[in-house]
Amino acid sequence: MELAGIHIQIQIHFLQLLLLLLLLINSSSVQALSEHHWDNLEGHHHRMPERCTYLLQEEQVLERKCGGTYPLMAFTKYRDTFVKTGEPFALYMPKTLDHVMVVMKDSALQNCARFQMGDMRTFFCLDDNANETIRLEDAHMFCFPFHIQLPDDLMQECLSENNMKQRFLDDVLRTRRGVIHYTFGDSRGHRHIPGCRPPLALLLLLPPLILLPISRKLLCELP
């Protein structure tokens, strides 16, 4: 009976180890797929996404409505791996209120009160005191053909941060489409998606930790 119990314990721990190995293999596959996705995206990081081409079809001027720092609330709620808490953002809208654009991360674009788009990396700043062409080193843009909640939340936080009136929040709520623009440049490292692969030290440590209870039980129960 004792020998049968030992065999059962060995089988249980073996299954646990097998399950762990399957999880690690799956984790590596997810990481590989993620890297493949971003490698493909990297090859097209200067091209305007198809969903965003409507922004170039009409020469609309986008006006800065509010600017602030990315709040912890938004980071916790949306888990955006491209932006960190405390990084700058600004909200821009045309007079038509057709869409709202969230400009993420620090760049010369953040200092522009009014601009027109040339492409995903080129903007024509139309400030009264100085008109200039802004060319960004590396940028990505995501366009949604529907209203999204992120600009609503960011506007509410931004108005509170700057002690501004709620009128701009009403304008954001009326927009039909949402646009998120990221400037990377020297911040390219923030595109890494954490959590896809456990640390190597942990992988090397887990098998001995699982096998340790087996060894102790065998030593204690062997005649």
How does this model look, in words?
This protein is α+β, with helices and mostly antiparallel strands. It has 2 domains: 2-43 and 201-221; 51-183, no CATH class. Helices cover 43% and strands 21% of the residues. It has 6 helices and 8 strands. The protein has helices spanning 2-43, 54-57, 72-78, 149-162, 167-174, 200-221, and strands at residues 62-69, 88-93, 99-104, 114-117, 122-126, 131-135, 139-144, 177-183. It has an 8-stranded mixed sheet with strand order 6-5-4-1-2-3-8-7. A hairpin with a 5-residue loop joins strand 2 (88-93) and strand 3. The longest helix is centred in the N-terminal third of the chain and has 42 residues, at 2-43. The chain is globular. It starts with a helix and ends with a helix. The model is unreliable at 20-44 and 187-223 (pLDDT under 50).
Order of helices and strands: HHEHEEEEEEHHEH
Shape category: globular
Question: What is the number of E strands?
Answer: 8
Given the structure, what is the number of helices?
A: 6
Taking all residues together, what is the mean pLDDT? Answer: 75
The chain-level structural class is alpha+beta
Taking all Cα atoms into account, the compactness measure Rg is: 26 Å
- The amount of helix comes to 40-55%
Measured by DSSP, the beta-strand proportion falls in: 15-25%
Residue windows where pLDDT falls under 50 for at least 5 positions: 20-44, 187-223
Q: State the strand order across the main sheet.
A: 6-5-4-1-2-3-8-7
Largest pleated sheet: 8 strands, mixed
Number of folding domains? 2
End-to-end separation in angstroms reads 13 Å
